[in-house]
């Protein structure tokens, strides 16, 4: 099964960016760890990070017919991108949303996720481990669907 791992704005700065909030692992590090897990689950991962909303939407569209699942951290777009929400809805590919920080514990503008209603579920607050949990949860959904 093929999974698209999508990361939104400023996630390329992980490790440098507010380590107290987001941890010290870099995105490359997280991706490496996900690849290790993917081997055991027989998943093939494709990674994409962008600071541009439209590029993320383009990747979601490209996934249509090509990917079995999407794991996404829309980052700040989580809170206001109706366009990313609509793209996820449009392709109808099983999607899991992840966040490093617990968005409900932070500023009130982070409490709302406009993408959460169109994904299978959301994992928030476990740092880099949120991605691992998200990948395992997505895998579980995909095999249960077969
Ligand atoms: C984030 C939470 C968002 O509020 C923030 O804008 C991010 C990262 C997280 O992974 O905790 O960039 O999605």
From TrEMBL:
Family in the record: Belongs to the type-II 3-dehydroquinase family.
Gene3D superfamilies: Dehydroquinase, class II
Record: active site: 22 (proton acceptor), 99 (proton donor)
Keyword Protein transport: no
Organism: Chengkuizengella marina
Key words, A-Z: Amino-acid biosynthesis, Aromatic amino acid biosynthesis, Lyase
Encoding gene per record: aroQ
EC number: 4.2.1.10
Catalytic activity: 3-dehydroquinate = 3-dehydroshikimate + H2O
Group of enzyme by EC: lyase
Pfam families named among the record's database cross-references: DHquinase_II (PF01220)
Protein name: 3-dehydroquinate dehydratase
Pathway membership, UniProt: Metabolic intermediate biosynthesis; chorismate biosynthesis; chorismate from D-erythrose 4-phosphate and phosphoenolpyruvate: step 3/7
Family matches, as PANTHER family: CATABOLIC 3-DEHYDROQUINASE (PTHR21272)
GO biological process, one term: quinate catabolic process
HAMAP family attached to this UniProt entry: AroQ (MF_00169)
Subunit comment: Homododecamer.
């Amino acid at each position: 099964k093929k999974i698209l791992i999508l990361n939104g704005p400023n996630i390329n700065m992980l490790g440098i960016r507010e380590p107290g909030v987001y941890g010290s692992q870099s995105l490359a590090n997280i991706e490496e760890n996900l690849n290790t897990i993917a081997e055991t689950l027989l998943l093939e991962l494709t990674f994409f990070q962008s600071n541009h909303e439209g590029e993320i939407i383009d990747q979601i569209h490209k996934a249509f017919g090509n990917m079995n699942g999407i794991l996404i951290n829309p980052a700040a777009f989580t809170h206001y991108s109706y366009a990313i929400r609509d793209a996820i809805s449009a392709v109808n590919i099983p999607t899991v949303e992840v966040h490093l920080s617990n968005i409900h514990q932070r500023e009130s503008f982070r409490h709302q996720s406009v993408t959460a209603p169109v994904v299978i579920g959301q994992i928030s607050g476990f740092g880099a481990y949120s991605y691992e949990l998200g990948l395992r949860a997505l895998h579980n959904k995909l095999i249960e669907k077969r």
